[in-house]
Amino acid sequence: MTYFTEVPKAVEDVLGNRYTTSSRREFLKTSGALVVSFSAAGVMSADPLAAAVGAARPGAAQQAGPYPDPDFKELDTWVAIHADNTATFYVGKTDCGQGTGTAFRQMMSDELDMAYADTSLVMGSTDVTPDQGGSGGSDGIQRDGWPMRRVAAEARRVLLEMASERFGVPVEQLDVRDAVIALKSEPSRSVTYAELIGDRRFNVPLTGRDINSVTGVADVKPVQDLRIVGQSPQRYDIPPKVDGSLTWAVDVTLPGMVHARNVKPPVVGATLLGFDESSVRDLPGFIRVVSQGNYLAVICEREEQAIDAARRLQVDWDAPNAEAFPTSDALYAYMRSATPTSSADPSVVGNPEAALASAAQVIEAEYDFPFQGHTAFGPAHALADPSDGQMTIYSNDMKSYGMRNGIAEFLGMPRDQVRVVWMEGPQAFGRTAADDAGFEAAFLAKEIGRPVRMQWTREEESAWDTKGPAFTFRLRGGLDAQGELIALDYDAQSADYNHVGYNEVETVLISQLMGTRRARPNRGRAGTPTEMYAIPNRRMTSQVVRLPSIWETPLRTGNLRDPNGPQVTFASESFIDELAAAANADPVEFRLKLLGGANDDDSGFKRARSIATIRAAADAYGWDTRPSPKPRGAGTILTGRGIAYSFRSQTVVAEIAEVEVDRDTGHVWVKRLVCAHDCGLVINPEGLRRTIEGGMMHSLSRALHEEVQFDTDKVTSVDWLSHPSLRHGDTPEEIEVVMVNGDPNPDRSDLPHYGAGEAVCKPLIAAVANAIYDATGVRLRRAPFRDERVLAALEAAGV
Amino acid sequence: MSAITLHVNGTEHTVDVDPSTRLLYVLRNDLRLRGPRFGCGLGQCGACTVIIDGVATRSCVTAVSRVSGQITTLEGLAKDGTLDPVQQAWIDEQVPACGFCQNGQIMAAKALLDRNPNPTDAEIRDGMEGALCRCMTYYRVQAAIKRVAAGTRDNGPAPAEEVPA
Questions:
Q1: Are strands A180-183 and A391-395 parallel, antiparallel or unpaired?
Q2: pTM of the model
Q3: Which domain holds residue B91?
Q4: Min Cα separation B155/chain A (Å)
Q5: Band (A603; pLDDT cuts 50, 70, 90)
Q6: How far apart are CA B137 and CA A58, in angstroms?
């Protein structure tokens, strides 16, 4: 039998102690085990973190690489039991602030039958944890939670077998609780997990064609037997974030480390003709200017020196003649007249044209939605270490595995000589799926042979980060004489051509600036509504259009928190409200009616849960049944309420916003928010509650403030003044979250855990627009609802 | 370069840097503090906030040569191994999402509560307006501030959330 010796413990010391578990909590003594202090000689000696992380793969002690992939078909890859009867779990996910790490630990602790406080979790470092793809799609719990549960259940099964052998009794005669196995008949005869396997390998193979289906022999527990799932242990990562002891990706330092800053083209498509190194050569700390193609960066010993040198470097750029894109004001007209680069197959039910022709009333409307940026609070950053012919990138990349593959290809290095150590960073929301700074740091580190820290500026991040695509919509709806919705025609266009993916080489800016082009640009996507309304005649069409510039552009589209959902649902759920108003129907009643119909198929299952969720929201709010708008008040402040609902994957969300609109200034304050949310089995209610609150608030920022603005050759919204964001003063007075279990068989023992996070981003913007309509009678069909735009709409309507 | 003396979290430090260097980079890169961090470099977001002689200050736009007072960073709030009530309220209320901005939230709240231990809702909104959060944890930040204020009023610690640790 192979022994771990102290290796896994060392990993836990280094990685696990970033977040001390509650049983070993020493917040103030934790001074950040991850910081690598300067060695006395100042040389690039073996980095203790690299040693520890590299050696962490069970059964292999590797300090300087290579870094082969942990084998997901080995139980030891996922679970290590230590001699002190604690456990460490290794999962290939990242937690971008939703508390998923805590939830993963709960699920795995529960299946393993070990107290939550006695476990710890390591995530997302490519040579230590199996490749579950990192984060994305709000499916960490929905999809990746299953293999986590199964492997933990398998570890429990193996331990029970070992105890059975030790005591010479069948497993059925054993009880297990909190990592102690005892005879049912004689509880004083017991053995701990540590006594059975502490610090030793399981050596148990798993099966499964891929990591999502990996499994052992054991079944997961029925929901009714879960004890830790459903509780709300506090997040383990919060104390060190609050006392300043956590080492984030921005905090890592290495011996000999230097600082880099990019110098971006002043306009889109500019060609780098040359630079005058003598303009910075004599600055203190100057090391080098590095350029290739149109990529340009400055490297200095100290951070403030790099900032200064990047500003002072004299660069000769050649601006192109052609315009890169229309201005942000001309965008929607441009998109409507553009020839699509692709069209999705139409989705047609019944005969919508005939039904519209026969309708008693036809409503038509166009909606517009701008490009919105990720505008991460902390601009892009990474540290790359080229020591020993390997490349280690310390990064907050949510998709660390994709980054590792991308950087290996970009640098022409074997995959197993590249690893990414995932660490905490600012909220991702999809931004780090094209992790520019990691590629840049690695390139520069390889160029100069020293560890390089890359840090983008605020202006660079706001201008050049990935963007959620702009949309235009055209909707038509037909009501019959009784006000029933008999036809709905939905058509969407998105400016999403050459949408970036998951850290593929051609998607990062450094690579594009060096001239790399993907042979076939990504087609992009224009989404369609995801509600479950039963409408007899319906057509949904969508097209993607391109802007003139698609490479080296700051309007590079990526996945922004539910990539198409907020845009699509703003249009579709606003329009449903328009139809309800035309039918003189209450907005809740109108929706519930559309959710009637057959319920013996999967759509019926979804409709039943949709109805339960909408009703729960209306009940919690105290919804008064009446059509919108309500009779307009005489005062300066007009109040109203609006609802919107959506479905994402298997998660149902209904949100109600209550607004105050100042008719003198156009200012909108969302005073109250109610969210009813059904994501099946809830792992951590308090964590979920905060994720829902944050997601709604982020969408509120997108509803009220956020819009990327540009002229024809550059983005002009580049900081928090030119690109405003939600602030404290915008905070609702009350946010209420109702957790719904609308499953037709709510007590089923296999109740799934669906996703949470992005689902709540879909309906919020429409809920706010519908509330503004209820208050004022004015329909806003273009986001965001900034004061001046609302005021203009009110004045135009004579309000 | 010149030798500059700073008083940070009760300890005197002398660093040899260009006097125009922003305080943020000296705190982070020379003194290895991690509470204050870079968010915008423009004084717009609050990520870099430190408290200098009781005043919440943007260290990213403050030249190190202009600082003469006592600097407190996030790391300096705890006393004798006990978290500041503001920090404890942040844990009890489970405020942070990603947490990257929370240095700015906590330091702004600390400065606010030190000068006004019992702020109204409007005073909280006003006092915190400069602290940006892109996970939009404002609702919980404000709840945590009210929790601290309630604890001060009651002259005792705020009740902890009833969830197992």
A1: unpaired
A2: 0.93
A3: 85-153
A4: 23
A5: confident
A6: 39
